[in-house]
Amino acid sequence: MTMIDTPTKRTASEEPATLVRRLAMDGRAAQRALAAMDSAARGTALHHAAARLRGDAESVLAANSLDLEAGRTNGLSDAMLDRLALDPERLEGVANALDRVADLPDPVGEIIDETTRPNGLALSQVRVPIGLIGIVYESRPNVTADAAALCVRAGNAVLLRGGSEAVHSNRAIHASLVAGLSEGGVPEAAVQLLPTQDRAAVGAMLKAAGLIDMIVPRGGRGLVERVQADARVPVLAHLDGVCHTYVHHAADPAMARKLVLNAKLRRTGICGAMETLLIDTRFPEAGGLVAALLDEGCAVRGDPRVQSLDPRVSAAGDADWGTEYLDAIVSAAMVDGLDEALAHIARHSSAHTDVIVTAHEAAAERFLAEVDSAIVMHNASSQFADGGEFGLGAEIGIATGRLHARGPVALKGLTTYKWLVRGTGQARP
User: Fold this and answer.
1) Residues 6+ apart with CB under 8 A from 49
2) Number of domains within the chain
3) Cα gap 19→23, rounded to integer Å
4) Do 291 and 220 sit in the same domain of this protein?
5) pLDDT, tens digit, 9 for 90 and up, residues 101-122
6) CA–CA separation, 256 vs 23, rounded Å?
7) Which domain holds residue 78?
8) Can you tell me the distance from the alpha carbon of 348 to that of 70, in angstroms, rounded to the nearest whole number?
9) What is the pLDDT of residues 300-313, one digit of tens each?
10) What angle do CA 93, 142, 225 make, to 5 degrees?
């Protein structure tokens, strides 16, 4: 694997605040050059990056093996190891995502709105890149590639800071990306990886107002809360995935079983995994639904009514209803109808993804209208809460707030806009 002598590597020994300032200035200069490239050139450069990643697969997987070995030594859970792990199939998926992003329509330059005022001024609202985006993330090395691809496609530079558990994987992926992008004419400093795991460097990123234009945290509640508390830079927050599936009394039992098992157990360590199961007291197969989870090796922590369905169910505590387990554990409660399900979700949901399973269209439409989450689904697994599955190519994260962008944040979520005003000599009276 080719190693690149980037500005990042030359400044690795600097004091954190000085390092971040230097990298940010390099990134801002690179972003201006990147924004001047046409859309086709940026897309071609991403195809080069995908090809380089495939060519470096052996080295990237070897680096990932070092992280997995260290993770096992340090006692990472199976779910966290799964988030960290790469194999040839997953790495090919990362490369494919780069290619998909390269081929997506470019939002930069899109006219959002235009009008002509009575005085003849022609106004247009046009999408432009945000600038330099800082991304602080944990565990999943694919974020290195996804974030870089989305930022570059939308004309943004990016400063990445991955978690220590994936340090070797992130460095290997970053080196491949920079090599491929450089072949396509993208400045090396457009995609930088912070070369230190010193937590002070994260603090310096959060305080780099005027240099970094937006911070995106991807990780657990502790990381996101720290970023939100300390940042002097605008934050696009991705909070816990406390995702609910409500099995309504009119749900098809076979469909409910399939969706519940998939939502919880397909991959337990992703933010779209179901963490709480709500079962209508009139649903005829409640016991079978709980038994199916237990039989597949999922621990169930239930309220008294769920406990009465199967002796293997343990008692849920108050904290369980707001916990993102990221493991083969689920909290489960019986609810007396749609109103009670909606109230439970309003009280405990993290506003990420919530699902209703039902054949009753009116109940489904009410659920879709009244649940105030970034993603609300009917008769589908919550594991579809993913930018790639939404046709967005990849995602920078799933934003659970209400401003700027919400749900899977992809290309349009990484743009802002400016107003263009064209006149013919008008002066304001």
Assistant:
1) 98, 145, 148, 149, 176, 177, 179, 180, 181, 184
2) 2
3) 6
4) no
5) 999 999 999 999 999 999 999 9
6) 50
7) 14-236+396-421
8) 35
9) 999 999 999 999 99
10) 145
